[in-house]
Amino acid sequence: MERWKGRVALVTGASVGIGAAVARALVQQGMRVVGCARNVDKIEKLAAECQSAGYSGTLIPYKCDLSNEEEILSMFSAIKTLHKGVDVCINNAGLAHNEPLLSGRTEGWRNMIDVNVLALSICTREAYKSMKERNVDDGHIININSMGGHRVVPSADEHFYCATKYAVTALTEGIRQELREANTHIRATCISPGIVETEFAFRHHNSDPEKAASVYESMKCLKAEDIASAVTFVLSAPPHVQIGDVQMRPVEQVS
């Protein structure tokens, strides 16, 4: 991780869960991390904790609604002005709604596409532009995907969400191919966790907290820090090594 010290990483959805753990880990490794979310109160608290801990990097909170392209573009413009640009883009933000394919609301489907697919694609495009403008040839784009992007969960509540994550799998490979065609050494990686104990299930099953709790009580789940460790592992790989897809799940998870 030595070569990343002082360089700029963008982490989307950095207020809680995996995003917060990744932001903390990168700050600990000496990176300047722009952590964005719709509400930055928790990111501001995390930034203060990182500073108190004496980490060599810094965490910069940025308020951004990723379902709004103008806000994303404004964020990248601010990063360019204040920090020159993005060297590492961690597309972590994602959400799920209980909207089955046969009875779901279009509004819920659209929100999942806006955040899980379009925001990821816009951030990737803008991060690549930022790297290209500054002749950064060793940047990295990391998409936090899901095992739901590799197999369809047998639950109607998850089907549309899985479709958006299958899109992330395809997008990551497409990005890798386009980066090769552009003759750059910028890398693209997909990290696909299984069940991770975060606030995700409680947001997904917000009307049924007992169901959400049962998801995490059924086995020893992954922790957000496990995914953060995977991110630093990927970033630590030698520049000539392309890690395409990291699939990780609890030992006790069946599928």
UniProtKB/TrEMBL annotation:
Pathway: Steroid biosynthesis; estrogen biosynthesis. InterPro entries: NAD(P)-bd_dom_sf (IPR036291), SDR_fam (IPR002347). It comes from Pundamilia nyererei. Keywords: Oxidoreductase. GO terms for molecular function: 3-beta-hydroxysteroid 3-dehydrogenase (NADP+) activity; estradiol 17-beta-dehydrogenase [NAD(P)+] activity. Belongs to the short-chain dehydrogenases/reductases (SDR) family. Catalyzes the conversion of the 17-keto group of estrone, 4- and 5-androstenes and 5-alpha-androstanes into their 17-beta-hydroxyl metabolites and the conversion of the 3-keto group of 3-, 3,17- and 3,20- diketosteroids into their 3-hydroxyl metabolites. Exhibits reductive 3-beta-hydroxysteroid dehydrogenase activity toward 5-beta-androstanes, 5-beta-pregnanes, 4-pregnenes and bile acids. May also reduce endogenous and exogenous alpha-dicarbonyl compounds and xenobiotic alicyclic ketones. Its EC number is 1.1.1.270, 1.1.1.62. Pfam families: adh_short. It comes from the Eukaryota. This is Dehydrogenase/reductase SDR family member 11. It catalyses: a 3beta-hydroxysteroid + NADP(+) = a 3-oxosteroid + NADPH + H(+); 17beta-estradiol + NADP(+) = estrone + NADPH + H(+); 17beta-estradiol + NAD(+) = estrone + NADH + H(+).
